[in-house]
Amino acid sequence: MKFFDYKEIYLAAGGNPSLMLDYYRSSNLGKDWIKNPKVLADFWVSDRHKAEYLGFCALRPYVDYVNYGKVDIAIVDLPPWVPLKLAEENPYLAVTDTHIKFIKET
Fold this sequence. Notes:
The chain is of the alpha+beta class. The protein has one domain. Helix content is 39%, strand content 14%. It has helices at residues 6-13, 17-25, 47-57, 62-68, 84-89, and strands at 2-4, 32-34, 73-74, 93-95, 99-102. The strands form two sheets. The protein has a three-stranded antiparallel beta sheet with strand order 3-5-4. A two-stranded antiparallel sheet has the order 1-2. The two termini are 13 Å apart.
């Protein structure tokens, strides 16, 4: 597990996915978390998808993981400014009728 600050990384990188990953790798502080950071080493996944994945990770409350082991996001909890299509196209995520599942973190 690794903690990071997605907002800080996004702003520092100006939204550039490659720079976001560089900043993420050097970051160890923040309220956002990824359970299995090794997935970001997959060479076959684009930097854009990896950066978007970090964004989806940042939407999850850590307290839900600690108390219930929950790693997925209910679709109803997805902020309106985040298109569901991003999750549908991300190779690290699976979308069901009710949830966005983090397939590499269960």
